[in-house]
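Task: sequence in, structure out. Protein: DUF469 family protein.
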Amino acid sequence: MRKRLRKKLHKGEFQELGFSFEAVIKENVDDNGFDAWMNELGKLLNQMGLNMIGSVYSGVCGGTITRQQGRVTLKEWELLSAWLREHAQIFDQVTVGKLEDLWRDD
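Result:
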């Protein structure tokens, strides 16, 4: 496959890896506590050069962690997975997806 087509199809060296997560917010968490957590997450992602696409709806916060172009590394995934799971004071349950191809066609 030619380089131009690999780039267009996000294959080979142009593959983009990321992961999803979902966290159920505890009922007793106020907006200030959640906002502080979001700010902390934002700073961490910014330091790592990563982005998050997500939302909060009916007490569930979820999203996908990506890099604008390129791949989230296994080391970054491990660090963020652990960081997300460490916040038991904010969440009842945290589910972190595996590192996967964000352009998969299944």
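The chain has a mean pLDDT of 87.
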